[in-house]
UniProtKB/TrEMBL annotation:
Keyword Oxidoreductase tagged: yes
Protein name: NADP-dependent oxidoreductase
Keywords in alphabetical order: Oxidoreductase
Domain Enoyl reductase (ER): 19-331
Lineage: Bacteria, Pseudomonadati, Pseudomonadota, Alphaproteobacteria, Caulobacterales
The organism's place on the tree of life at top rank: Bacteria
Length: 333
């Protein structure tokens, strides 16, 4: 068991990123750890989740400058004055990007790693995986035989969404930004058609891959790919809006073509829905059971990029946003 320290090391942003995210936007700082009050417990973080949406929070003011940053983490309780949390227990919480954190039990979930690697509770069995499951099954209601397009399909969320579509019996089309991701999706994840959206003719390739149109679009990126998907969507089609990663690292984040999309949606009864998994907690046990079973049997494949040490956090963010990471990115402490 880890011994209790008097200070924590935490990741800060020291300026608002204006262009592409840079390691110079970050610093590592020390912060005092107060003595535990009744109802508190000390967590030694083991895994920090590196999520692309933080890039937007760094720029738009949601994340404070020169202060501790929030992110999902999994850690071990090392000292406790809370009757429900005992030393040695693993907890998931949102006080990450630091090595030690004080918890009070709110927004905290106990984690039983069980038969799975702990990293999987950050990826396919974690919050991102749950967004994939809820978005594809509950929001888009993908059905066997339908065509499903998933963007950023080699990422943590996308790689699960596209494999769930395959398991449902859908025709799967995926977009990614590099040849290695293309190969992984085709050769390991069993996706039928994979398109590199950085190739000049990606729109033509997408249209050719969907000769009968698109029934479901699982949108991780927004922007030009949402535009292209909506140009192909069939009447009664569904779009699950999970995220907009193309906007996160951009100076001009949002497309100007909303008018054209709205017209198409209106005339074709297309449903486009954003969602948050907090409204679907009732599905969590079924999600854990189903996805856990598929992972165990090898029916779903998953990748984790592990970076070691808190000091690796800034580069992990830069690499994730730049598209250099396959699967889920975590920092291990
Ligand atoms: N993880 C979560 O807990 C969670 C929860 C709710 C919502 N979401 C949302 O779900 C989406 C996917 O999240 P994730 O955690 O799995 O991250 P992710 O898809 O791995 O995100 C990083 C990837 O985004 C792609 N990307 C970067 N810039 C792009 C651009 N301009 N256009 C298209 N793709 C670009 C890159 O892949 P390529 O090499 O393929 O370009 C990069 O590797 C995000 O929009 C996120 O906000 C995630």
């Amino acid at each position: 068991m880890t011994s209790s320290p008097s200070t924590a090391r935490e990741v800060h942003i020291v300026r608002r990123p204006a262009g592409p995210l840079s390691t110079a936007d970050f610093a590592i700082a020390e912060a005092a750890l107060p003595d535990l009050a009744p109802g508190e417990f000390l967590i030694a973080n083991r895994l920090l989740s590196i999520d692309p949406v933080r890039r937007m929070f760094f720029a738009n003011g949601t994340a404070p400058l020169n202060a501790g940053l929030h992110s999902f983490s999994i850690g071990e309780v090392v000292e406790s004055r809370h009757s429900d949390y005992a030393p040695g227990e693993l907890v998931g919480h949102y006080k990450g990007l630091r090595d030690f954190a004080v918890g009070r039990g709110e927004e905290t979930r106990k984690i039983v790693a069980g038969e799975y690697p702990l990293e999987w509770h950050m990826g396919p069995l974690g919050v991102g995986g749950f967004f994939a499951y809820v978005g594809l099954i509950e929001i888009a209601r993908a059905r066997p035989g339908e065509s499903v397009l998933v963007s950023s399909a080699a990422g943590s969320v996308g790689s699960l969404a596209v494999q769930l579509a395959r398991l449902i019996g859908c025709r799967t089309v995926a977009t990614v930004g590099s040849a290695d991701k293309q190969a992984w999706l085709a050769d390991v994840a069993g996706v039928e058609t994979v398109i590199d959206y950085k190739q000049a003719d990606w729109r033509e390739r997408l249209a050719a891959a969907l000769p009968d149109g698109l029934d479901v679009y699982f949108d991780n990126v927004g922007g030009a790919q949402l535009d292209a998907a909506l140009s192909l969507i069939n009447p009664q089609g569904r779009v699950a809006v999970c995220g907009m990663v193309s906007a996160y690292d951009s100076a001009t984040p949002f497309s100007e073509r909303a008018g054209a999309w709205t017209w198409r949606m209106m005339t074709s009864q297309v449903g486009l829905r954003s969602y948050h998994v907090r409204d679907y907690q009732r599905l969590w046990p079924a999600f854990q059971r189903s996805v856990g079973g598929w992972l165990r049997r090898g029916a779903i494949r998953t990748e984790t990029q592990v970076r070691d040490g808190l000091d690796a956090t800034p580069q992990a963010f830069v690499d994730l946003i730049a598209g250099r990471s396959l699967g889920k990115t975590v920092v291990r402490l």
